[in-house]
Amino acid sequence: MKVLIAGVGHPNLKDLSFGQVLLPHLKKQKWAKDFDLENLSFGAIAVLQWFQDFPGKYERVVFVSAAERAGRKPGTLDVYKWDFAPLDEEVVQECVAESVTGIISLDNLMMILQYFKALPPEVVVLDLEPIDSEIGFECSPEITARFDEFGEIIREKATAKLETKNE
Fold first, then answer.
1. Which of 17, 63, 73, 110 has the most CB atoms at less than 10 Å from its CB?
2. Would residue 9 count as lying in a domain?
3. DSSP3 helix / strand / coil % (the chain, rounded to 5)
4. What does the DSSP 8-state code read for residue 146?
């Protein structure tokens, strides 16, 4: 089973950079050859084209990102499977429009990849509520101190037995 661990984040916005900042930490660990670790912190259309260059290559992708979400305590890591819910074409079009203007958003990315059927059968999302989203090249000390914890969660999700197939 080929698995992709993909960091997605806003460059230079401390904890909002979480997905891409955590990747070098993860790459220091030993991974089997069936695991690819990639920084996909660029426009959703370019990421879509990247996936389209490798159709069917992955059976699972684990997206690692951060987003400010209402009602969530800073430092919270939500872990969930993407549910492949039906998409509204107007919403997808808005996501495409935002993407081509340079917006990096995991939500936009997921909807665009789903709409164009570029996602593998199983998608796991690790979504962090930032503590600090000011300008900066590193995550906040509170988040950085938890990198080993986050790495263990990612390894667990990436190596779990494949459970579902997307029709």
1. 17
2. yes
3. 35, 20, 45
4. T
What CATH number corresponds to the domain at position 12? 3.40.50.1450
Three-state DSSP state, 27: helix
Phi, psi of 83 (to 5 degrees): -95, 0
Range of the domain at 113: 3-159
- Rounded distance, CA 96 to CA 105, Å? 11
**Edge-first strand listing for the sheet containing 35-39:** 35-39, 3-7, 60-66, 122-128, 77-81
| Overall domain count for the chain | 1
The phi and psi torsions of 135 (rounded to 5 degrees) equal -65, 130
What are the tokens at 114?
């789903």
State pLDDT tens for residues 9-59: 988 999 999 999 999 999 999 999 999 999 999 889 999 999 999 999 999
Token representation of residue 159:
């190596």
Give the model's confidence band at 166: pLDDT under 50 very low, under 70 low, under 90 confident, else very high.
Answer: very low
Report yes or no on 167 lying in a domain: no
